[in-house]
Every structure is written in C-alpha cells, then in structure tokens.
Amino acid sequence: MLRCAATCLILGFVWGAKTVQTSEGPRCSADLKEISSSSDSVAVQVTSAGLSCNFSLFCVLDSWSSPAHCKSDGETGSATICNITGLQPGTVYQLTAVSRKDGEISHGTVQTDPVGPAHLDLQLGPARPHPKSLFTVLSGSALTVSWTRPTGRVDWYDVTLEDTSSGSRRRTRIKGSLGPARPHPKSLFTVLSGSALTVSWTRPTGRVDWYDVTLEDTSSGSRRRTRIKGSAASQTGFTSLIPGTLYKVSVVASAGNKSASPVHAMTATAPSSVDGLQVASSSSHSLGVTWWIGSGRMENLRVLLRDRAGVLLKNITLKNSSTSAELDGLRPGTPYTITVVTEAVGLQSSASTASVTETSLSVRWSRPLGQWDGFTVLLRWATAAATIVDQRVLGWEAKECTFNSITPGGQYTVTVTTNSGNLSSSASVTAWTTPAQVGGLQLSNLGSTDSLQARWAPAPGYLDSYQVLLVHDSSVIKNESVMANVSSLSFQALRPGALYRVVVTTVRVGHTSRQTVSEGRTGKKRQQGTTRGWS
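-> structure tokens emitted (535 positions)
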C-alpha cells in the first residue's frame, strides 16, 4: 500500500552536448512528458534545449515520496526516461524539475491509471446480499449492478449495459471515492485509576488532523467529548467517573472532511464500598450489622461471615438498598469477621470489620467430697444492692456454668451453692467482663495535607476511657487517652501524603478490649504547573 507521508524523491541527472558554447545560450528549462502509465507507476521523459543541464526532479502528493529510476534515452543523451513506482491508482501527482545549473524551475503533472472493481455482481430483481462469485444472474425485469471498491482514488465509474443481440448500449456514471482511505486508530487502550480514566491508542497510518474521543455512560446515556489534535500525544483522559458504571469509549479519527468508523472499547468502574460499617452484639447468639450506602451505582450487596480461621460460615445476598443485616445462630463469646461486599458491572468492592458475640461469663468448680444432690449458681451485680442477674439449678454431675447476654465491662459476683438434702454450702467469686471494642473506626484526612481525624462508634457496655495510638512506619508517634464520651480525635502536624495507622482500645479498670485498627493517608501537596488532556 502507498504511504501518504513525506516529500518525494530528489533525483539528480545530467547530460552534455558535443558542441562548444561560446555565448550564454538558452536557459535550462525542462520539458516533462508522460510517456506511459499504469495503476501504480508512470514513466516520464525529461528533455531540455539547454546545454550541460543538471536537474533535480521532485514528484509530490501532499508530502509523499517514491523512488524513481532514470536512464538516458538513446545515444545522444539529450533526454532521460524516469520510472516512478509505488504510486496510488487514479491519483494526480505534481512534478517539479529544478536546474542545478541556473535554478530554472519547470512543472508538469502525471496521473496513474485507476483500478477497476475487484468483483462485479449482477443481480436481476430487488437487490439482495450477493455471493463472492463474479456474476450472479436471477430472474426478473430489473438489474442491479454492484462491485467491490478498488484500492486507490476513483473519481467516477462508467457503467455500460449492452444488448448483445441488437448492440444497443445504455450508460450511466457513478461518483467514486473522493480521497484517500479513511484513517482509523489501530487499537484502543483504557486504564482506570480510582475515578480517573486514561484513554490511549496506537497511531494509524496516514494523515490524521484530529481525534474525537467520546465517553458514554451506558446506564444513563450521557456523553462527554474531547478533541485531540492529530499531532499531539495519542491519549487523553476523563475524571470524576461514577463508581459501579459501565462506560463505552469511542475514538474517531478525521482527516479533512473524511472521518473513519469509530473504534470502541468498554471499561467499568468498581462500585464504592459501604461506609460506616458497624457490628454490635444483638445477643449471645447473634450479631447486628449496619452500614451506609456509598456513592455511585450498585447492583447487589452480600454479607459474609467468617470465623477466626477464615472459614466462610454465611453468605447472604441483599437488595442494593439494604443498610443492615442480622446474623444469628452463632456461638456466644466467639470472634467473627464480617465483610460487606458491593457488586456492580461484574466488579466488587468490600469493607470488613471484626466483632465478638455478646459477652459471656463462665465459672468452673471442682466437685466436693461426699454426696450431694445438685448445685445452684447465682449471678449478681457486684454492687451494694447485689441485684440478681441470673440463676441456674444444675444436676449433681455439673462442673461449670456459663452466663450469656451480660454487659461488657461489668463487675459480677457468682455464687455456687452445693445442695445435699436440707444442707447447703456456698462459695463465691467476683470477676470483670472484658470491655467491648469500638466499631466503625475510620481515619480520614478531610482534605487536609497535614492532619487526620479518627472517628469510631462508641463501645457498648461499661468503660472508663479509650486509648488511641497513631502509628507511622511501625513507630507509635501519638499515644492519647480520651474519656468514654469521646468518639473522635484529630492529629495535627503530620507529613503530607504519608500513610498512618490508628489503633483504638477500650479501657475499663485496667482491663482492655481487643484492638480496632484502621489506616488513612494525609493529602498530597499539589504540584506547581498545569495538567493536560483531562475532561
């Protein structure tokens, strides 16, 4: 195929005369004459009335070039034949000859032969899809003539219908192509980073004046467009994309008044994860999970429950508008990990947190000597009022008792009474339940480059304070203790763009809960300068 891209060959040639010129003589003006042509080559004869002329020959189509081969014509050497090959069919080229002797410039034109249709189909009757065979004849009184477009430039087609019996003919002229083949991008690439999309493509062959790039939201049908010069970098970008959305990207290359067919690519943004995920113990056998819906689009929600070893115990699918779930049938006092998964356009995002089913208190004892009928186990608040919380009557074989659904961070007294007939004997013990850990911990910069704010949901039950640690590069750089009624804390004078980890622990009379951990990064300082190619 012909490349329309740079200046044609510069060709030098010279001839001399046998007579000696004593005066200035005629100038070196070249006579350029096309003596033969084909669909991809022409032969040009170059002559001149001047003596000892030396020419450079340029053949030009826009800025395209092709090699030529020249040789003297006959023994006189007064003419040169140049063969120029690798041309486009049906195309006009400008020829320019420049005299190296006196700078005289001469012009001429040549045109290659057009190429006829590669296939011709005849169809009688209404037009219909035709096979690849050269001729197709069907019954009817109407004739449809069709052909495959040839390569190169065609200004028009002359179509003739001849009656072979009478010799009569009917002719019509059909307009051909108006220029070179339409340019188009060879391949299209998209790269997503957060809510930004980079679109890039491989440059096509031939001339391109500009690219029209369109981003279409396939859900709403809304479109955003940008135009990139053909000489610029073959990429552009779009920001502020909607999470959970399928996008269609189209690139159209244009040259002059011609445009290529669009080149398409599909891409999708992942859905937002849920915000404010919190888990609270509803009972000794259940956990309640709540969250806020994130921005963008979402098709489904799933709640996953795993045990400490990571084994999946529950997988519940909910409507995309759901903001809570109840997980029951659990073991008392057992740690679990809860993950809420958002799904859209085949992609997923998730948020996880850990929690423990409602606090329990267990007491164990050794069996007494002798004989006995059974045991009575009494649970009281360890206060002056000694309010009874729960009571159990157990058989003679019992050696332990567990009380569920009690308050985290509370102090209790357990009394075990041995019963034998009308006689009894008691023993008591006082213990604290472990304080509950906080939920929904988040560490965010709120748009700041040098500060972070930690927020959490208050721990249920009794507590005295929270211990809050700020960690950077495995070193504790802040160690704060805040009152039980505080649920947020800000950290100042931090490094821009740095990653930090916050650790919150609930404290009750020296007893501590399990740690809750979250990570966050300070904002980056804006760089001086401008950005390009983003919409």
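The radius of gyration is 44 Å.
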